[in-house]
Design goal:
Blueprint lengths: L12 H5 L20 E2 L4 E2 L5 H5 L4 E5 L2 H15 L21 E4 L2 E5 L4 H17 L6 E10 L7 E8 L6 E6 L2 E6 L4 H9 L9 E8 L19 H13 L2 E5 L2 H11 L2 E11 L10 H25 L16 H12 L3
Parallel strand pairs: 3-5, 3-6, 6-12, 7-10, 10-11
Antiparallel strand pairs: 1-2, 4-5, 6-11, 7-12, 8-9
Helix pairs in contact: 3-8, 4-7
Family: Belongs to the PNP/UDP phosphorylase family.
GO molecular function: uridine phosphorylase activity
Protein name: Uridine phosphorylase 1 isoform X2
Length: 346
């Protein structure tokens, strides 16, 4: 069946049965015919590296925009789950030779930077889903940890996405494939969203809410900002648009959620998006909170996600000192080729 059918369907019962053993399946028969699958932007390969040895124990894939944020999260989650590195070692950026994304492995948790905007996330998601497939990971949970602008929501509020909407308020992501336009449902796991919300406590000095997220293709005009290099609408136009969003249940705006939701759903992977608002867009456009305040705010989604990971590991009897592998080179020659290929087009 061709995927180019105008509107892509949700998984059928027959298709869902394929995922019953928990492993990630690919909707691409070409992969099996390839001598090696090079995960080009991660500087990994299915024959140059022993991906099952390296990543087979991964249960959580946590993604965020910048390499530094995910490096900080890797150190944070290491303390939270009691992960112990082998003596004399330190956390390593597994994808350092790609010069594009950063990846840190902390026991069963992968911490990966995804860059900014849907194209960057799309590239990473294809390769992360294939990585889960090659590593034979079972029931991985993908969580995007990010920042956003609030709509009627004050800065510092933690927002868990219920539905990811595109610029036309559709709960889907639009793709152009072989010149044809298709839409894939941008569905996130609502049970996971509720589980995350339940881990917010009365002692938290901030609110944690669930709501709809608008995903745009642009930070400025696409989000109705007045402070870009171009603006051909009035402040009244902007405010009317933001009020329309609020009337439709939108509580925040960012630039990654629809592609993240569409690709995880298409792969049958449970996923969630947890962001912190950096400002209330009803009060302005520019992010002007002090740096130290912003730093503390950005830790808030990480704290919530860490609570979830701790809860799952504790329930499974895995919350203890963990010893992991930083890497496993299966073929030095192929590894060098993958490394050179990733460096070739910096």
């Amino acid at each position: 069946m061709s995927l180019l059918t105008g509107n892509s369907h949700s998984l059928s019962e027959e298709e869902l049965d394929e995922y019953s053993d928990g492993t990630v399946k690919l909707r691409n028969s070409n992969i099996e015919l390839m001598d090696q699958d090079i995960l080009y932007h991660l500087a990994l390969g299915s024959e140059s590296h022993d991906l099952q040895e390296m990543f087979g124990d991964v249960k959580f894939v946590c993604m965020g925009g910048t390499p530094k944020r995910m490096e900080n999260f890797a150190h944070f989650i290491m303390n939270e789950i009691g992960y112990k590195l082998p003596a004399g070692t330190q956390l390593q950026d597994i994808s350092a030779y790609s010069y594009r994304y950063s990846m840190y492995k902390v026991g069963p948790v992968l911490c990966v930077s995804h860059g900014m905007g849907t194209p960057s996330v799309s590239i990473l998601m294809h390769e992360m889903i294939k990585l889960m497939y090659h590593a034979k990971c079972k029931d991985p949970v993908f969580i995007r940890i990010g920042t956003c602008g609030g709509v009627g929501v004050e800065g510092g509020t933690v927002i868990i996405t219920e539905d990811a909407l595109d610029g036309q308020l559709r709960n889907s992501h639009e793709f152009t494939i072989l010149g044809e336009t298709i839409h894939r449902p941008a569905k996130l796991d609502k049970k996971l969203a509720r589980e995350l919300k339940a881990l917010a406590t009365a002692d938290d000095p901030y609110d944690t809410i669930i709501g709809k997220t608008l995903c745009t293709n642009d930070f400025y005009e696409g989000q109705g900002r007045l402070d870009g290099a171009f603006c051909e609408f009035s402040e009244n136009d902007k405010m009317a648009y933001l009020e329309k969003l609020r009337d439709n249940g939108v509580v925040n705006i960012e630039m990654e959620s629809t592609i993240f939701a569409a690709l995880t759903h298409h792969a049958g992977i449970k996923a969630a998006v947890v962001c912190v608002a950096l400002l209330n867009r009803l009060n302005g456009d520019q992010v002007n909170a002090p740096k130290e305040v912003m730093h503390e705010w950005q830790q808030r989604p990480q704290i919530l996600v860490a609570r979830y990971i701790r809860k799952v590991l504790s329930h499974n009897g895995q919350l203890k000192s963990l010893f992991g592998h930083q890497g496993s080179i299966k073929s030095p020659r192929r590894f060098k080729l993958v490394q050179q290929e990733s460096q070739a087009h910096e």
